[in-house]
Amino acid sequence: MARYNAPSRRSGGPKQNTFFGGAAILAAGILVVKLIGMFYKIPLVNIIGAQGNTDFTNAYNIYAVLLSISTAGLPVAVSKLVSEANAQGRRRQVQRTFQLSLIMFLALGAVSFLVMFFQADLLAGMMHDTKAAPGIQALAPAVVCVGCLAALRGYSQGHLNMTPTSVSQIIEALCKLVIGLSLAWWLISAGQPPEIAAAGAITGVTVGTVAALAYMVIHFFIVRTQEPRLTRDVPDRAGDIVRDILRIAIPITLSSSMVGIVTVIDSSLVQGQLQRVLLEDPACWALYTDFVDFVPLENAIAAWKETLAAEAPATMAALSAQVDGEAVPQAAQELYTLLESVSRSLYGNYGGALNIYNLPISLMAAITASVIPAVSGALASRDRRGASRVSASALRITALLVCPMGVGLFVMGKPIMTLLYPALERDIAGPLLSTLGLATTFVCMMMVCNSILQAHGFVNLPVLVMLLGGGIKIFANYHVVAMPKVGIYGAPVGNILCFSLCLALDLLLISRVIPRRPRYADVFFKPLLASAVMGAAAWAVYGLAEKVLSAVPEGETEAVLSRTGNAMATLGAIGVAVVIYLALVVALRAITRDDLSLMPKGERIARLLGL
Fold first, then answer.
1. What are the sequence ranges of the domains in the chain?
2. What is residue 600's predicted lDDT score, i.e. its pLDDT?
3. Cα–Cα distance, 591 to 480 (Å, whole number)
4. Could you give the CA distance from residue 371 to residue 395 in angstroms, rounded to a whole number?
5. 465, 505 in Cβ contact below 8 A?
6. Cα 138 from Cα 203, distance rounded (Å)
7. Roughly how many angstroms between the first and final C-alpha of the chain, as a whole number?
8. Concatenated DSSP letters for 331-344?
9. What Cα–Cα distance (Å) separates residue 511 from each residue in 16, 181, 412, 523, 592?
10. Which of 49, 78, 99, 111 falls 20 to 30 Å from 542 in CA-CA distance?
């Protein structure tokens, strides 16, 4: 295996991006993308309703799993190998790595497209939502395009250039917003059912990937003309490069895909359990009587039971067997449709809460995408102290970001859902978001820990940890959702159990296998203290504003907070919380000069803060 030894920095070459410089670019891009996504998802749910949101969510979850399998590990592997080759001055190795990765992306994307397009009904049936099939087919072409996008993004990130990734993500999000939302509104206005409107909204995702790919291709060819001439290094053999890519990509793919796979399994089980308990244990109806008219369902169950043989069990298994048979009794089909409709309505509220829960998780992509190439490049240059410094700063910055997010969602769950999703049931969606808020901190910290372990070469450990956590999540939700007194409100419990366990194990592994591991008290204590004070302030401000702004309707004794009043109280509480948290971060010196030195203009910020 030929090697070309060169300095890690080329004389006269461009200045290397700092780790958090790249992270800041990605974070800014992702923030814009998520703001666009907010303007997409929030009106979309209010347009297509809870049932349409369930169809959209189920289709997108299937897409996310196949997308992760196709693209999750390969971009990271490409960025890692490109970063290492750049550090060694091996330009021909960089070019050959990219070419081979692009071929692999296309092959995996094509297979995923065939599965999604031609097996859409089967995939939708697995989710206990037959109405999701049109959305799955509408998303199928996007998998191929995103595969090519991932290769190009990995190539740029391997050069520590995060700008093309951010711009392409913004283009993708804008197309999704304009085209997807317009199609959904037009289809609903034309009298189409929610599942067709959901498929129209998803079409915007596919169009967005095509536009983003076009930008990345143009940018790639422009940059290629400006790059220095190829060095005289001899690239490794194709088989060796592919083996290196797969060696890195497969464990990372399994680790990244585990979240999506667990989500799909969990979604399927939760919806299946909701339908089963609604049929077999009417005691659970008491949870939802304020939101669901159970008279049609009660009549349908009675009519179906009359078609059963004497002493035959009236179970979901018996109903499914009839529906899956060749000659489906009308009473069985009508009952199955009603059960599916009720579960779609309930799960749609959970899906709305998941949209908000996923925002902090998405922002972590900025840090996780920068950790692996930055740490790998430092280790390739034998700079262990630099690798340790980046890892410690990544953990501290992540804790500073996600602790207030988690506490804020927990404290303000119901007001936030009322503000953003008036089409959903606040008494269902609000408590669900509050519970999910607790899981936010765990999952975000876990993602960064996984990246640190993978960057240090321990690519298999996060996979094993996620397998264990995912099994606990599935087991917990399967049983908790089936409890008549818990129902849909138990769906987030598995998230908390899963990701808290994964984080604890990851932190334990980092302390055992990575030299110069950070002090966890320095990472967590100050952000948690500041977040607790901030959460108490937000709760107090909202409670006070609610009392002041509430009105008592004529002829009633219970005070009611209008939508405008809730918006004012919620935004006021959030504003106060942000100011208090920032002040506490500075007062407690929760961020260090080392952390800021890795950011653009960090030294100037440190001087302003007196650090």
1. 19-276+339-518, 519-611
2. 52
3. 40
4. 10
5. yes
6. 6
7. 48
8. HHHHHHHHHHHHHH
9. 30, 47, 34, 13, 21
10. 49
